[in-house]
Write a structure and sequence with these properties.
alpha/beta, seven-stranded mixed β-sheet, globular
Length: 671
Amino acid sequence: MSNLDQERSYLQSGAHRARRRELSPQRWQELSARIQTPSLTLPRRAALRLRLFLEEETIVRRPGERIPCWRTLISFPDLYAPGEKEGLQAGHYIHEQGRVCNISSDWEGALRDGLLPRRDRLCALLAQKEGDADYLTSAIACIDAVLAYADRYEWQGLSHAVRHGARTYEEALQAFRMLHFCLWASNVYHNTVGRFDQFMFPYYQADMEAGRLTPEDAQALTEEFFLSFNRDSDLYSGMQQGDNGQSLMLGGCDAQGNCAVNALTGICLTASLRNRCIDPKINLRVTRDTPLELFERCTALTRQGLGFPQYANDDVVIPALIRWGYAPEDARNYTVAACWEFIVPGTAMDIPNIGAVSLAKAVRDAIAAHLKDSPDYDTLFARVKAELTARADTLEASVKPLWMEPAPYQSVLMCDYSHDISQGAKYNNYGIHGTGFADAVDQLCAVKKYVFEQKTLCPDALLAALAQNFEGAAPLLHLLREDAPKLGRDTECLPIADALLDAFAGSWEGRKNERSGIFRPGTGSAMYYLWHAKDLGALSDGHRAGEVLCANLSPSLLVRDAGPLSVIQAMARPGLPRVMNGGPLTLELHDTVFQNQEGMTKVAQLVRSFIQLGGHQLQLNAVDRDTLLDAQAHPEAHRNLIVRVWGWSGHFVQLDKAYQDQIIARTSYTI
């Protein structure tokens, strides 16, 4: 068995977790007292915490290993004494944990130059008394902590790369792993990988031209590097196990707009295919001109059931970002955050998931309040628009004043590292999810058809049925669930879908956040498809109270008889450029689709068709409902079953049952 095969087996068995440890109560108390010293500012505490964390870490090196860093510490003291954090945050809006997250670092610059030039620049600013001395001192201390940690490995190439920049592909991989690992140790999270095949390609190319590297060794190195993300990914979970933000982007274009797909693009796809691990999560930038062969190669990866690659359409995303004020060279350099939100590496402090609007509830509330006094559909839809605007007003007011924990080490890894990234950067935009889009459209379609056009359903009867959750109204429930128009199946829904997208985009147009950024609406749902369903009640599309919403830009879970082609046609809407925060069409394909080359080609053609129709983002699941049900009943037999959840992949048996049930309820299409 090769070293790589041994490493895969070692990780998949969970044997590596035996190396983990908790600090003793006495040591925890000692470290807490040092970190939480009242006289230390938060930036200095952050730097001290990072140094102590790395000093406490055990250096692990397995035989033949070429990629460093194994996390052994399960947990570590926080910056705050008991009750202190609550006092600091009082009167502020706290996003998630109040920490910097969903940032894509300046990996290109950090790997090219190393940390010493950044340290020298920070020292010069400090000596010249330019900038915040507290931040500058803390950032310098963070660099020193990382350099000392790298030296403990006693790898000359690693120490050189972290200090002065990588010289080879192997050194670049080692340095990235070191710098990225230290980000996790610094208490920030959802640390993305960015455009890996772009910033790593110069090292690969130089090695190949110099004869220092063979294609086989490059493949093996990349696979080992990818495996390293899975050594500790379970310690970095978000809402669920697997939601850790380790997203990697491939393909796309360069700063001038030229195709940038290269040899590393294919190497990365093969590495992910061979490893069959949930990290790093693969994304691929494509265009209408992307050859079918690349889609076919990616379909082979989808067949493995990993839920990736996730596709992003440069033809739609880049112009939309430019329209929102991103410089063309930055827009062309976009990557994704933890799930699918579009961000720019090195220069952005965008918070791409600061809040969400339930489109399904906005429509439901407008119907409940105004259906009876609306003489026609246009009047009712005007009420929907007013409801969306009111919700935008409320959400905008609720996210300020924002408080974020200082992040000196994350700041060091940005293009402008002269100030703390938690205070802002070149781009400071906020992303707003729009959940239950198809459920909202289907409600409007049903009301428009049966109340206003056919006049076969009176408002009082509908509202009474909704209030009673359709108890005693079985014929009406059947009509709305089975016969009423549904987005993804019936073309009469498309004008309403376009109007609703336009209204949602319009409700945020022109708004500025307190950091002089804009609000970017999007079609993603994240975990809100469960949260927003809890108090939603019954809907005029036939949803009963308690039933969950669709995930992202997907058909309602009530749709059972639509084909995948009609779905992609319905979801490639012309209004998508105005809601470009991100949020993919999520499709489940039955795993029998992938059994032969003909089926694989059809899947690749389906993906390409969605891109050519103007779809902005797509993720696919290869699923078998019977397997999922068996995994619920017998999780011990399906430990390595991987599924796409909302914007990330995870092990099915580790998900909460509510997420499992929603995945099982999704329609699995055949082609």
